């Protein structure tokens, strides 16, 4: 543990026995960098961090306990330049002159995402909002502990789930004991926490972020509700297609087509969480056999998303396939 006894470095084999205050200081620097909002003022807090396998040794930061998937996440996100300076100073402090050229891989510590325990995701595979979260997690290379809920059997009304989410909706995540629901809120949270300072998925620039927010609000407030109002009464209620509702949906698709005029993605040349949210909706509309041929910009963007959204097949297409099965089942029931 931090500040106690000797520790052998898995990188160079040195066994060191150091003054507590120096080791404690190093641990504080590392903890504050990885978890800037944490309170790292006590030995107990740092020992708890150590116990979660974010390991320190007496001479070097030791990542030997990381699993391969953890290493992949560790290597994904860029550390800001000021952290490089900290690491350089620590390297000078930690290594003896004879070890100055010790093999501390710059790349192994050049990126960081401090996720050791998987985030719980309560979800239903066919749900478009749930697929939004799956797409965002895939783009961030986050590990999810999937917890499917059967809404038809009322599993979302079980007491344990109601304690997490009184609205009993999916998707719901639990991240280090913190529950959160609503797919777009979850998307923003995940990128803000795990996306790194330079993540383009939800840009820091005020105007760029505002445009992403506008597209997200368009999805949740206009496009998806208009689709739901038109299509779900037919599938789940056996209703007839409503011409007025269809016209409103078509109007929303015209808007999206206009957003994409002359642009690669919905806010410009870079993929954002707005694209991931909207593609979950558009793929659902497509699965409902509502033609997109009148909206060429949407069609072109949709095909692009299938190849550029990270892990699209697992994060979205599998859920679409489940949605199609559900549609077929519900139609069979209403035709009896």
TrEMBL record:
It comes from the Eukaryota. Residues 117-198 form the GST N-terminal domain. Keywords: DNA-binding, Metal-binding, Zinc, Zinc-finger. One of its GO terms (molecular function) is glutathione transferase activity. GO terms for biological process: glutathione metabolic process. CDD domains: GST_C_Delta_Epsilon, GST_N_Delta_Epsilon. Residues 205-327 form the GST C-terminal domain. Residues 1-83 form the THAP-type domain. SUPFAM superfamilies: GST C-terminal domain-like, Thioredoxin-like. Homodimer. Belongs to the GST superfamily. This is Glutathione S-transferase 1-1-like isoform X6. It comes from Bombyx mandarina (Wild silk moth).
